[in-house]
Amino acid sequence: MQQIMTTLVIGANRYRVDGQSGGSIYLLEPGGGEDTNTAGLAVHKLKMPYDLFDQLKQKRVPGIFQVLMETERGGQETDNEIVISVKGEGDLSSDILQDLFNVPAQTKVAKAPDQPMEGATVALVIGASRYELDNGVKGANLVVAQKTSGRNDNQLGFEIIRFGMPYELFGVLKDKGLPGEYKLLVSFRSSSRFKARLRVDGIEGDSYLDRSRLQTLFGLAAPSQAPAPKTGAAG
Are 122 and 208 in contact (CB under 8 A)? Predict the structure, then answer.
């Protein structure tokens, strides 16, 4: 079964390990719904063939594409959606981003810091979720979109990263508004095998996101301004 979706492709990656190869493509869509435990935009990670990455490298990512998906039966009575082709050139406009990120046209915000900070970082927070298990354990996660550094030839567009955070911070972020670009207070926590993971401990200030900032983050040129008409009597 095949279906076409016109959507924002925000990033993609691929791998080749021990004779196995494949890739993933990330789609960004409005959130919505009645789930009180989620907020912000929805990120969908789908499988794709390894070679499709080469086609995407010739296009503009992130961008709007017609994505052809195929549903196939997986193991344990599950269905998997696989992207088999992407059509279009990745056209993207400030108006589309402004509408998707729900940024008012005339918002005035503070400028985002452009230097590294100790114990903090500025990140584009796409969405967040929280959970509470039957045994009383509860927590929350936020999803960050980070422009790829270019050091990895197998990454394209934005990288989607998930961070853990305290359960209570979900409500704080939801009240501030998602998606948004925020100053996050962070620390390292050790997990299994001494692997350090970054954890979000707090959110400071309001969102830095406005139309101009969206243009910068997504690599869009600011709209050109027509020259002011000349006035004065002809000599």
Answer: yes
Long-range contacts of 140-148 (CB under 8 A, 24+ apart): 140/164, 140/165, 140/166, 140/167, 140/168, 140/169, 140/170, 141/165, 142/169, 142/173, 142/200, 143/40, 143/43, 145/10, 145/11, 145/28, 147/217, 148/11
Cβ 72 vs Cβ 10: under 8 Å: no
| Structural domain spans, the chain | 2-217
Instruction: Kindly indicate the confidence band of residue 139, based on its pLDDT and cuts at 50, 70 and 90.
Output: very high
Please state, in angstroms and rounded to a whole number, the distance separating the CA atoms of residues 160 and 49: 19
pLDDT in tens, 49-87: 999 999 999 999 999 999 999 987 766 667 788 999 999
Give the pairing of strands 20-29 and 42-48.
Answer: antiparallel
Query: Could you tell me how many residues make up the chain?
Result: 235
State the chain's maximal CA–CA distance in angstroms.
86
